[in-house]
Design brief:
Blueprint lengths: L11 H7 L3 E6 L6 E6 L6 E6 L4 E4 L11 E2 L5 E7 L6 E7 L6 E2 L12 E3 L5 E8 L2 E10 L3 E2 L3 E6 L3 E6 L5 E6 L9 E6 L5 E5 L7 E6 L8 E5 L6 E5 L6 E3 L9 E6 L5 E8 L2 E8 L5 E3 L6 E7 L5 E7 L2 E8 L6 E6 L11 E6 L5 E7 L7 E7 L13 H8 L3 E6 L8 H5 L7 H16 L3 E11 L1 H12 L6 E5 L5 H7 L2 H11 L7 H6 L13 E6 L7 H13 L4 E6 L8 H20 L2
Parallel strand pairs: 32-33, 32-34, 34-35, 35-36, 36-37
Antiparallel strand pairs: 1-2, 2-3, 3-4, 5-6, 6-7, 7-8, 9-10, 10-11, 11-12, 11-13, 14-15, 15-16, 16-17, 18-19, 19-20, 20-21, 22-23, 23-24, 24-25, 26-27, 27-28, 28-29, 30-31, 31-33
Helix pairs in contact: 1-2
């Protein structure tokens, strides 16, 4: 039986949401007392100048919708970020001084664009970015002269395939991008350019069946090797590539299993930092490039993210688990033993632990998930959550939303369905060309597991998720209508073809790779993967929470889905909020969680 719904300000679940959380992801290589952090301490996630020596923070941005990502120049003089229109992710890169001040548009003459990254050379004299517009993807580079004056952006490359980067060599003479250009897949190859002339220097490809991702260049002057990853063996493994000479060195690591991702290159250039994933649990290693010695770093439990070397050689990681919020800790660069807490987390109400579980899907594929149960004996009303992406992985994390359900007597399971990363190439690529099908098979198998284990009441299993997880919520309710007590979808899409037409080019290129073509080229596949195709079968009540300025899951797709559902007389609530792909405002996040819980309580009371 669920507990009485608590929505007062003293409710433990609200206290968890309001906990000040700081993510410190960058330190200026040439000015290591300066760092960049993202924090919600103002009630909205904003960028902060982080004074590394004493932990003090100075707020740099005050945008009402918040700012989640920024980029610190290696000399620590400026912080850059994409200034968009109320969270729509279209805009220009701007910069603010580390000491604070007005934002300066560095690309005033370019059209509005989307971009996921802005990069710098080690010497801070070169910066670059990929700008995506309706016309495709453009690589731009800019020079910085004395006095921090920037040159006008010069276009080095244009393509229509999904493209990320660039990365710069130490002195900025070489720029490397990862692109799918020339393929109808999501598999990348690397292209290196002379950053002054735009002349192509070299390419690295493992064929259309495999993908290569670039991570970082060597931190040593004169060393033009780039650290990258390939999945040609079926699992990600690191490699080194020199675009100048074409020399390639693969680091096979046969003693490790699962995906092994390259995280960073040590300041001494002697070691690289690696992360092995085993059933969604990360393990950190260092690899000595001279001796080939692999050392597992010592730590216990929880999840590490954003691992990187700080200039002195220690390893900084963001650590958390289901009962402890994220905190930045320093590990010894050679042993991994924790040396200190750099930025501590505050105290939170007691929370329930997560447990890793595995079950088999309809084709006997093992599926991993994270399970948490409330106090008392089951079976319980249960929340089945699916993460966004789909190319993402759910690791053990401090998730206020999951704890809110547990506080009220619900069991909670989040799964790494087919399409998730870190389980190998075949697992990730299984969904391509037919999205929704295998993910739903895994969701149904998760429900079977929950019921057979006596965890879930069969008639009280709710599905939920945000972004791609929101899409899967709508898809599941239409395809398997008799299995669910209700669904709660955040920033979802209901008609795949309409979403494709309205979304940013970055997402259109991704969808072309995911589906093997456009809606015009693959109309049957897009229709088969669209929740609106199955709207007439929906039986359970549905809540959708959608952003008006979202360019990843655009509003028109949900407006059309809502209209169809209302024509069919289906039980539907839609709540619109004035932001993009999710909210960076703490109180708005609390409001969304409260709406979902009130909705679930209403569905249970109507049974």
């Amino acid at each position: 039986m669920v507990k009485e719904l608590r929505v007062d300000d003293a409710a433990p679940w609200k206290q968890r949401y309001r906990l000040p959380v700081t993510y410190a992801g960058q330190i200026a290589r040439l000015a290591p007392t300066r760092g960049l952090a993202t924090s919600n301490r103002s009630g909205i996630y904003q960028l902060y100048a982080w004074h590394v020596s004493d932990g003090e923070m100075t707020q740099l941005t005050k945008r009402p919708e918040g700012v989640a990502h920024g980029f610190l120049v290696p000399d620590g003089a400026y912080v850059y970020y994409l200034e968009d229109r109320k969270g729509d992710e279209f805009g220009h890169f701007v910069r603010v001084p580390f000491e604070g001040g007005p934002a300066e548009d560095i690309t005033p003459d370019l059209p509005l664009f989307t971009s996921g990254r802005l990069s710098f050379s080690h010497t801070a004299k070169q910066l670059g970015f990929i700008a995506a517009t309706d016309d495709g993807f453009d690589l731009y580079c800019m020079d910085e002269s004395p006095g921090s004056r920037l040159s006008s952006p010069r276009k080095l490359y244009h393509c229509s395939g999904e493209t990320s980067g660039p990365l710069f060599s130490y002195d900025g003479e070489i720029a490397v991008i990862a692109t799918t250009e020339g393929t109808n897949t999501l598999n990348y190859h690397l292209v290196a350019f002379d950053s002054s002339s735009g002349q192509e220097i070299g390419q690295l490809s493992d064929g259309e069946e495999s993908s290569i991702e670039a991570v970082t260049f060597s931190p040593r002057d004169g060393d033009t090797r780039v650290l990258a990853m390939t999945n040609r063996s079926g699992f990600k493994r690191p490699l080194l590539w020199n675009p100048r000479s074409g020399e390639r060195t693969d680091i096979t690591l046969d003693q490790l299993r699962g995906d092994v991702t390259a995280e960073d290159w040590s300041p001494s250039s002697e070691r690289i930092l690696l992360c092995e994933f085993v059933e969604a649990v990360p393990r950190l290693y260092t690899y000595d490039l001279m001796t080939g010695k692999l050392i597992q770093l010592q730590y216990s439990g929880g999840t590490f993210s954003g691992a990187y070397y700080e200039p002195g050689g220690d390893i900084f990681v963001q650590w958390e688990d289901a009962t402890h919020p994220a905190q930045l800790i320093a590990l010894d660069g050679e042993t991994g033993i924790q040396k200190r807490t750099v930025l501590a987390a505050g105290e939170v109400p007691p929370s329930r632990p997560w447990k890793s579980i595995t079950f088999t899907s309809s084709d006997e594929q093992a599926i991993q998930g994270w399970l948490a149960v409330p106090d008392g004996a089951g079976p319980f009303p249960t929340i089945l959550e699916t993460h966004g992406g789909p190319t993402a992985v759910e690791t053990e994390s401090f998730a206020p939303g999951s704890q809110a359900w547990l506080d009220h007597g619900f069991a909670y399971l989040t799964i790494n369905y087919r399409g998730s990363t870190s389980f190998g190439r075949d697992f990730e690529e299984k969904i391509r060309g037919n999205i929704g099908h295998w993910e739903l098979e895994d969701m149904v198998a998760a429900r079977v597991f929950l019921v057979q284990q006596g965890i879930a009441k069969p008639e009280q299993v709710f599905v939920t998720g945000w972004s791609y997880g929101g899409y899967l919520t709508l898809f599941a309710l239409g395809k398997c209508p008799d299995l669910w007590a209700g669904g709660m979808a955040g920033v979802a899409f209901g008609d795949y073809a309409i979403a494709y037409a309205d979304e940013a080019e970055t997402l259109r290129a991704y969808d072309r790779g995911l589906m093997g073509g456009t809606p015009q080229e693959k109309p049957e596949q897009y229709a088969a993967s669209s929740p609106i195709t199955y709207a007439e079968h929906v039986e359970a009540p549905l809540l959708i929470i959608q952003g008006r300025n979202d360019t990843r899951c655009p509003p028109r797709s949900i407006e059309v889905y809502e209209q169809r559902m209302r024509e069919l007389g289906k039980p539907l609530e839609v709540y619109w909020f004035d932001a993009g792909h999710g909210s960076l405002q703490v109180e708005q996040q609390i409001d969304h969680q409260e709406r979902m819980m009130r909705f679930a309580y209403g569905a249970l009371h109507s049974q």
